[in-house]
Amino acid sequence: MSEGVAGLLREKTRPPGIPKTAEAKVTEVLRLTQGPPPPDATHWTLRAMAKAVGLAASTVCDIWKAHGLAPHRWRQFKLSNDPAFVDKLRDVVGLYVAPPAHAVVLSVDEKSQIQALDRTQPGLPLKKGRGPTMTHDYKRHGTTTFFAALNVLTGEVTARNMARHRHQEFLHFLNQIERCVPADKAIHVILDNSCTHRHANVRAWLASHPRWTFHFIPTSSSWLNAVDLRRENGPPDRFPILLIFAKLTRRRLKHGVFRSVDDLKTAITRFIEQHNTSEAKPFTWRADPDKIIAARNRGFQLLDSIH
Q1: Global pTM value
Q2: How confident is the model over 107-121, as a mean pLDDT?
Q3: Sheet strand arrangement including 186-191
Q4: Which residue in 189, 127, 178, 121 sits closest to 152, CA to CA?
Q5: E strand or H helix that includes residue 215
Q6: Distance from first CA to last CA of the chain, Å, rounded?
Q7: Of 60, 244, 245, 246, which is least surrounded by CB within 10 A?
Q8: What pLDDT, on the 0 to 100 scale, is given for residue 20?
Q9: Do residues 289 and 91 lie in contact, with contact meaning Cβ atoms separated by under 8 Å?
Q10: Are 176 and 159 a contacting pair, CB within 8 Å?
Q11: pLDDT tens digit string along 218-252?
């Protein structure tokens, strides 16, 4: 008022309406977040941290976001302890990248205990402004085991549904593949280390069929088996595909209604037929095995440094 219009027109630096969070408080939030959690919890929550440091929950959220911290998010991992990890990795990747001439490369696995689930009440269909509905409870009508063999060169799947998951059923599936593959081609099979695949009767069958060769993936490395890949999107050097088991689960089984095991088997069979007719394409491996080995070694080094 004393300066008049000149005082109103002159620019002045004014303090903000909300005072800036003190650096000491920010440092304390970061220290606590990256330290041990409260004794009655597995991790820091937003409100627990706000109460501990005397800040608003929105302020703690801004601090976490600015420093890339998300204590509520957990990522699962598993490092393979297989002593022959490198040799098995290069063997399997070699089959993907440069399959042998005059041979068929198959990625084989089983999806066991698929339940035929029926809902207790019919759901409502999709409409504008509302998604489809489904009751949370269900009725079980039995289970089936789905055996699948993905042809790496064509993307086609040889499949079979069986009641149980034993070496006897696995041998039946191998005999089915034996009949389907031309006699002049060798058969290379990529599969995991389950006891079903290593049974003495399976080894005897393998010895009596010289054109067959088993290539076992390392332990705890299901991501190396093409038929079991689950990653749908990603950079070109990772696994940007969603293959049979994950696709079957997400597209057909997860929200399916099956009134009997036969209905479930029919749905799976139709799904595989549709895949072979319109969606089958050669499998392309894009990940560098050297980078995978280096990442595994870094993981073990980090675990050793922590523990």
Answers
A1: 0.80
A2: 92
A3: 157-162, 138-151, 103-119, 186-191, 212-216
A4: 189
A5: strand 212-216
A6: 68
A7: 246
A8: 83
A9: no
A10: no
A11: 998 888 998 887 654 333 344 444 578 888 988 89
